[in-house]
Write a structure and sequence with these properties.
Blueprint lengths: L5 H20 L10 E8 L5 E8 L3 H25 L7 E6 L2 H21 L1
Helix pairs in contact: 1-2
Length: about 120
């Protein structure tokens, strides 16, 4: 089992908070809608790479457009993170689509349907 590194947890939380603010208010790409949220951040221990998991509400085409917009804006976002977070190295950013929220909503809806059907029987 991996030892929990509190420093990395703090760094990930800070990157998550700042990245969410930057994506929400500073990135002007029209492809990136308001229904884009940063779910989780994983930074390597050497601070060279950072995966930012984002959740996008919308259809598959809209999701792909948002991911293209984020990939395009990665350099800009990294630059702003470097200004706001005091790290020796600012990690290289990659964005990953996280469907867990959408999956949870879908499963919740299915569970409610099943319980409604069983209560009617």
């Amino acid at each position: 089992m991996r030892k929990v590194n509190t420093r990395m947890i703090r760094i990930n939380d800070e990157i998550q908070r700042e990245a969410a603010n930057i994506i929400r208010s500073e990135v002007k790409d029209p492809r990136i809608g308001t229904l884009t949220s940063v779910v989780k951040v994983e930074t390597t221990s050497d601070l060279k790479y950072c995966k930012i998991f984002v959740s996008v509400l919308g259809n598959d085409e809209e999701k792909q457009e948002v991911m293209k917009g984020l990939k395009n804006a990665a350099g800009f976002i990294r630059h702003l993170l470097a200004e706001r977070i005091n790290l020796r190295n600012t990690p290289e950013l990659t964005f990953k689509l996280d469907d867990s929220l959408e999956y949870a909503i879908k499963m919740d809806k299915l569970i409610k349907e099943i319980s409604k059907e069983s209560s009617e029987d």
